[in-house]
Write a structure and sequence with these properties.
Helix content: 25-40%
Keywords: ATP-binding, DNA-directed DNA polymerase, Metal-binding, Nucleotide-binding, Nucleotidyltransferase, Transferase, Zinc
Distance between the termini: 10 Å
CATH architecture of the largest domain: 3-Layer(aba) Sandwich
Order of helices and strands: HEHHEHEHEHEHHH
Catalytic activity: DNA(n) + a 2'-deoxyribonucleoside 5'-triphosphate = DNA(n+1) + diphosphate
Number of domains: 2
Number of helices: 9
Strand order of the largest sheet: 2-3-4-1-5
CATH class of the largest domain: Alpha Beta
Mean pLDDT: 88
Largest sheet: 5 strands, parallel
CATH topology of the largest domain: Rossmann fold
Radius of gyration: 18 Å
Low-confidence stretches: 207-214
GO cellular component, one term: DNA polymerase III complex
Shape: globular
EC number: 2.7.7.7
Organism: mine drainage metagenome
Structural class: alpha/beta
């Protein structure tokens, strides 16, 4: 289970409200950096933002979830959402290959969105290649960067991103959310299991969601 809209996010109101305000005002920055421990919602927020930008109903803080663009983003099939695991593509040649088509207009959507997870794993040369695009981004491109270790990012990259630090989620809130998810999915569970839910790894909700439902 993953949240599909900002109002489904758990424990990150300080981030979602800023993004909602930006979308409503029509002033959405070209680059965002989401930081925090594993499982707190970095990539979930990034995918929701990608839907907000490319929903066929228009740029919105409440994507419909029903149009082709929203459905394809949710299932990882949207051609203009380019997701990159930087941990496995660290070399400068990889980065250049990813950015080769950045100047071209989106194929389907309103914006071409680059979601780069674990961005701190990029090499120095890769960061330099990325920086050139961050300095002069095409108007149709948005960068959504996620990392568990922002200290490893160059200051030059940090200075060009709006930064959001996602908080560890209180254990009681995690347990309540998981109970709600299991009930909605019609999955039986033992009440005693809530004692295990209250021992989440580093305040992470996503990990527990996967473990509890699978």
């Amino acid at each position: 289970w993953r949240p599909k809209a900002f109002n489904e996010l758990v424990g990150q109101d300080h981030v979602s409200q800023v993004l909602v305000n930006a979308l409503r005002s029509g002033r959405v920055h070209h680059a965002f950096l989401f930081t925090g421990t594993r499982g707190v919602g970095k990539t979930s927020i990034a995918r929701i933002l990608a839907k907000c930008l490319n929903c066929e109903a228009g740029v919105t803080d409440t994507p419909c979830g029903q149009c082709a663009s929203c459905r394809e983003i949710e299932t990882g099939r949207f051609v203009d959402l380019i997701e990159v695991d930087a941990a496995s593509r660290t070399k400068v040649d990889d980065t250049r290959e990813i950015l080769d088509n950045v100047q071209f207009a989106p194929t389907r959507g309103r914006y071409k969105v680059y979601l780069i997870d674990e961005v701190h794993m990029l090499s120095t040369h890769s960061f330099n290649a990325l920086l050139k695009t961050l300095e002069e981004p095409p108007p149709h491109v948005k960068f959504l960067l996620a990392t568990t270790d922002p200290q490893k990012l160059p200051v030059t990259v940090l200075s060009r991103c709006l930064q959001f630090n996602l908080k560890r989620i209180p254990t009681a809130q995690i347990a309540a959310t998981l109970r709600t998810v299991l009930e909605k999915e019609g999955i039986a569970f033992e009440p005693a299991a809530s004692r295990w839910w209250r021992r989440p790894p580093m305040g992470a909700c996503a990990t527990r969601s996967r473990c509890s439902i699978n």
